[in-house]
């Protein structure tokens, strides 16, 4: 947090529980870096990590239910293929375009040399920096940054055609042992081409077909964030809002950390003796994130319940199955909590697929 807000945060920690309180005064909300006269405008993001015992993760069981947190960390990173899809329409003028350039250059600076990337900008037409993905070497990155600095806002917004072109570029660039990502930077308001939001979402899902995630960065106070968020969730990604009166670099740090380091692809969670499971297949797993699966234990028979995770690490198959994994029975006080996690994930995932 900025120094001006440091004393607005208190943390308390006891045994297995922690509390974070954030109480900025009215004056603090007006005088902090990037705060306007209207006070603060942003998201409160709490970043934390927890101790895990085994590579298989942490499994909590209660009467008839389980929750599995899977977050292995001692794995080598996988090279990425990233396509940036950048809105340069007239509605992106001024501060939004300035922040978009900053965001793009920030992310380009973080690419590793074995990553491959592509850039397209769009208004009612699509403009390619290069027609196909290229290696993130010094020469290509400098050329891409020059391209980014010269993006000018004009015209209307055909999000549908641009995202489909991004998906086509990734589909045309299969690279074994790598993970692919689309990052859309926009204010999220389609005004040309296909403008029906449901049809755009449907087209994007069809062309991405669960092969890679779509991440959306939404710029400006008038961003159609609901549309971007739903489209990201439907394609295994997340959407982030970039606030105009805050430092774009600072806001991007957390977002990019989430997608910077893919560790596994084609993750399959297997539970013999489990039923009514939440989502068990994940296209990618990133360092610093975690996969959570919940379900019911068939006939509440903990003896025959055996979890296993199969995934691809670079270009080899890896299996996580720890016979000594801690299956912690949480006791009756916790029973309803494990059931509620299962219910919450089930409903959340059904809504995302709507």
From TrEMBL:
Pfam family for this entry, one: VWA
Chain ranges of the VWFA domain: 81-259
Annotated family: Belongs to the ITIH family.
Superkingdom per UniProt: Eukaryota
UniProt-listed InterPro entries: ITIH, VWF_A, vWFA_dom_sf
PROSITE patterns: VWFA (PS50234)
GO cellular component terms attached to this protein's record: extracellular region
Protein name: Inter-alpha (Globulin) inhibitor h4 isoform 1
Localization: Secreted
Entry keywords, A to Z: Glycoprotein, Protease inhibitor, Secreted, Serine protease inhibitor, Signal
Presence of the UniProt keyword Secreted in the record: yes
GO molecular function: serine-type endopeptidase inhibitor activity
């Amino acid at each position: 947090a900025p120094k001006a807000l440091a004393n607005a945060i208190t943390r308390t920690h006891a045994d297995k529980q922690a509390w974070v309180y954030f109480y900025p005064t009215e004056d603090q909300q007006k005088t902090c870096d990037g705060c306007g006269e209207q006070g603060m405008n942003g998201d409160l993001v709490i970043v934390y990590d927890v101790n895990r015992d085994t590579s298989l993760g942490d499994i909590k069981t209660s009467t008839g239910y389980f929750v599995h947190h899977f977050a292995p960390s001692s794995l080598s990173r996988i090279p990425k293929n990233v396509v940036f899809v950048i809105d340069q329409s007239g509605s992106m003028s001024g501060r939004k375009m300035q922040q978009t350039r900053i965001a793009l250059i920030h992310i380009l600076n973080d690419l590793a040399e074995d990553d491959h990337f592509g850039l397209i900008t769009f208004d009612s037409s699509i403009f390619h920096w290069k027609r196909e993905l290229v290696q993130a070497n010094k020469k290509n990155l400098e050329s891409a940054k020059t391209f980014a600095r010269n993006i000018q806002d004009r015209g209307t917004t055909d999000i549908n055609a641009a995202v489909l072109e991004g998906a086509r570029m990734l589909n045309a660039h299969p690279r074994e042992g790598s993970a692919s990502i689309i990052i859309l930077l926009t204010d999220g308001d389609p005004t040309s081409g296909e403008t029906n939001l449901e049809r755009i979402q449907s087209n994007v899902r069809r062309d991405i077909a669960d092969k890679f995630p779509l991440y959306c960065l939404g710029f400006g106070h008038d961003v159609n964030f609901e549309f971007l968020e739903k489209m990201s969730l439907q394609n295994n990604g997340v959407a982030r809002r970039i606030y105009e009166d805050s430092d774009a670099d600072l806001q991007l740090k957390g977002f990019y950390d989430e997608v910077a380091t893919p560790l596994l692809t084609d993750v399959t969670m297997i539970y013999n003796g489990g039923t009514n499971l939440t989502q068990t297949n994940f296209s990618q797993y990133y360092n610093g994130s975690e996969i959570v699966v919940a379900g019911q234990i068939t006939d509440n028979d903990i003896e025959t319940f055996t979890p296993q995770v199969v995934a691809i690490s670079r270009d080899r198959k890896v299996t996580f199955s720890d016979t000594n994994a801690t299956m912690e029975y949480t006791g009756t006080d916790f029973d309803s909590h494990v059931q509620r996690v299962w219910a919450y994930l089930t409903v959340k995932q059904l809504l995302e697929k709507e």
